[in-house]
Amino acid sequence: MIRKSTLAALGASFILGLAVTASAHAEAVKDTAKWDSEFKASVKRGDGLFHGGIKSSNEVACVQCHPEGSNTHAETYPKYQKQLGKVSQLWEMANWCLENPLESKPMAADSQDMVDLVAYMTMIRRGYKLEAGKY
Question: How far apart are CA 88 and CA 132, in angstroms?
Fold first, then answer.
């Protein structure tokens, strides 16, 4: 036979567990909304950079060689890049493009502009099969 005090303790534990779960769920929803908002803001900034927002000595923009993000293939990095002569990350190839066709300065891999540019290129290629290393 289970004592009333044991049942009361179990009931209290159950109610406390529900409260903790509800609180954790509310926090997760809040976090998810923040993550989504921050990512969308990064993609928007990257869109602006991709479409002419990078200072270039010859007024070339990423979009001129990659209309609608074509041929960026963000989903295939890391991969061997002939231009760089090594297996590279997307940001490294972006810097090659910045220095060569755009005749601009490279960006640090962890700079906000590079993060935003990579976020944009990755977003526009969403839905494509992830194939790291593919040409």
Answer: 11
State how far the Cα of 29 lies from the Cα of 102, in Å rounded to an integer: 41
CA nearest neighbour of 104 among 67, 61, 74: 61
pLDDT band at 94 (very low <50, low <70, confident <90, very high): very high
Q: How far apart are CA 33 and CA 16, in angstroms?
A: 26
Tell me what the mean pLDDT of segment 49-67 comes to. 95
Please state the CATH superfamily assignment of the domain spanning residues 4-124 in this structure.
Cytochrome c-like domain (1.10.760.10)
Give all strands (DSSP E) within the chain, no chain letters.
79-81, 86-88
Question: Distances in Å between the alpha carbon of 55 and those of 51, 64, 97, 118, 119?
Answer: 11, 14, 13, 17, 19
Whole-number pLDDT of residue 44: 98
All structural domains of the chain with their residue ranges: 4-124
Contacts 24+ apart (CB under 8 A), 35-42: 39/119, 42/115, 42/116, 42/119, 42/120
Query: Is the pLDDT at 74 greater than 90, yes or no?
Result: yes
